[in-house]
Amino acid sequence: MSAKAHMGRLLRHLKALIAFDTQNPPRNLVAGSLIFEYLRTAVGHDFEIRLTDHNKGRVSFLALRGKPDRLFNVHIDTVPVLDGQNFRPWK
């Protein structure tokens, strides 16, 4: 796959991810949220998925393949838009 194709695939995933409402507060994520189904599909079938709902809007999504020696730790919650907030889009 070419670099351009990889970039296109990455941008499609980013576009899909930012379409999910993950604002915190109100911290209303649950294990059944659609974003976790998207992630499950995106990582593929060769991963073991462990989804743990810790309540109060805290959910862990762990994707394992084989016996990993590295961990990528990210969070998906976002800050709500505030009144009067300004931003500059990427150029």
Secondary structure layout:
Blueprint: H1 3-18, H2 34-43, E1 48-53, E2 59-64
Antiparallel strand pairs: 1-2
Give structural notes:
The chain is of the alpha+beta class and 91 residues long. 29% of the residues lie in helices and 13% in strands. The chain has two helices and two strands. A two-stranded antiparallel ribbon has the order 1-2. Strand 1 and strand 2 form a beta hairpin. The longest helix has 16 residues. It is globular, with a radius of gyration of 16 Å. The two termini are 26 Å apart.
Which tags fit this structure?
single chain, 91 residues, alpha+beta, two-stranded antiparallel ribbon, 2 helices, globular
Low-confidence stretches: none
Q: Assess the beta-strand content as a share of residues.
A: 5-15%
Strand order of the largest sheet: 1-2
Oligomer: single chain
End-to-end separation: 26 Å
- Which descriptor suits the 3D outline? globular
Continuous helix count? 2
The ordered string of helix (H) and strand (E) elements is HHEE
Number of strand segments = 2
Radius of gyration: 16 Å
Largest sheet: 2 strands, antiparallel
